[in-house]
């Protein structure tokens, strides 16, 4: 097994969402699938969400 840092990106109607997580897996494909599953688990726990950083710029 290898450690992977996975970044998932989703283009949404009103913005872009990134999910970054570390997983252990046998392959890159398995790592992406594991990251997707972790994201879905986290979605179920929205009471734990807190944005701790941001970047703002005038456009």
List keywords for this structure.
59 residues; 2 strands; globular
Structure description:
This protein has 1 helix and 2 strands. It has one helix spanning 28-43; strands spanning 2-12, 15-25. Strands 1-2 form a two-stranded antiparallel ribbon.
Described by the principal axes of the CA atoms, the overall outline is globular
Q: What portion of residues is helical?
A: 25-40%
Total DSSP helices: 1
Distance between the termini: 44 Å
Strand numbers in spatial order across the main sheet? 1-2
Task: Kindly estimate the percentage of residues that lie in beta strands according to DSSP.
Answer: 35-45%
Structural class: alpha+beta
Low-pLDDT stretches are none
- The radius of gyration over CA amounts to 14 Å
Global mean pLDDT? 93
The biggest beta sheet is recorded as:
2 strands, antiparallel
Order of helices and strands: EEH
Tally of DSSP β-strands: 2
Indicate the topology.
Elements: E1 2-12, E2 15-25, H1 28-43
Antiparallel strand pairs: 1-2
Sum this structure up briefly.
The protein is built from one helix and two strands; from the N terminus they run E-E-H. The chain has 59 residues and is of the alpha+beta class.
């Amino acid at each position: 097994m290898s450690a992977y840092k996975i970044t998932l990106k989703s283009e949404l109607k009103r913005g872009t969402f990134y999910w970054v997580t570390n997983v252990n897996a046998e392959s890159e494909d398995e790592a992406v699938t594991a990251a997707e599953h972790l994201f879905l688990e986290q979605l179920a726990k929205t009471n734990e969400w807190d944005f701790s950083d941001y970047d703002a710029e005038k456009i």
